[in-house]
Amino acid sequence: MGPGLDDGYTEGTAKTSEWRTTPLWGLGLAPGVQGGNYYLLHDGRAHSIEQAIQMHGGEASASAGRFNSLSQTDRGALVTFLKSL
Ligand code: HEM
After folding, report:
1. Is residue 70 helix, strand or coil?
2. Which ligand 1 atom is the nearest neighbour of the CA of 40?
3. The ligand 1 atom nearest the CA atom of 59
4. Which tens digit of pLDDT belongs to each residue from 24-81?
5. Which of 6, 26, 63, 77 shows its CA 20 to 30 Å from the CA of 41?
6. Atom of ligand 1 nearest to the CA of 5
7. What is the pLDDT of residues 19-39, one digit of tens each?
8. Nearest alpha-carbon partner for 2 in 17, 12, 23, 19
9. How many CA atoms lie within 13 A of 30 on its CB side?
10. What does the H/E/C string look like for 1-43?
11. How far, in Å, is the centroid of ligand 1 from the Cα of 68?
């Protein structure tokens, strides 16, 4: 996931920037059990879905780039979809 999400700690055979791809179902329900806030990614550093997507690096950086090039309306539609999962 690139240097931004590299925490320098190894787990098993995973490199320090490799993370399990998180299932996104139930994403919209997360704030309901976290005091109304989002704490996304492996260390909870992303406080919104938009931030989590924008922090994707490495193999996922193209997806983050495509998200950033969407119009505000299309970004909103994607986030609404993700919250519905
Ligand atoms: C538009 C496409 C994508 C969207 C909307 C998306 C969305 C997200 C979101 C919201 C999270 C945080 C989930 C959570 O913490 O509960 C996440 C995490 C993650 N995503 Fe994606 N993602 C996309 C593409 C990708 C791609 C292409 C890859 C891999 C090549 C990827 C790999 C990961 C990984 C490994 C994590 C966990 C990272 C960590 O825990 O630090 N994602 N994604």
Report:
1. coil
2. 15
3. 30
4. 999 999 999 999 999 999 999 999 999 999 999 999 999 999 999 999 999 999 999 9
5. 77
6. 41
7. 999 999 999 999 999 999 999
8. 17
9. 20
10. CCHHHCCCCCECCECCCCCCCCCCCCHHHHHHHCCCCCCECCC
11. 14
- Cβ-contact 58, 2 below 8 angstroms: yes
The pTM for the full model equals 0.95
Task: Using the mean position of ligand 1's atoms as its centre, give its distance from the Cα of residue 56 in Å.
Answer: 7
The residue length of the chain stands at: 85
Cβ 1 vs Cβ 57: under 8 Å: yes
Q: How many Cβ atoms sit within 10 Å of the Cβ of residue 49?
A: 21
Does ligand 1 have an atom closer than 6 angstroms to the CB of 42?
Answer: yes
How far is residue 7 CA from its own chain's centroid? 16
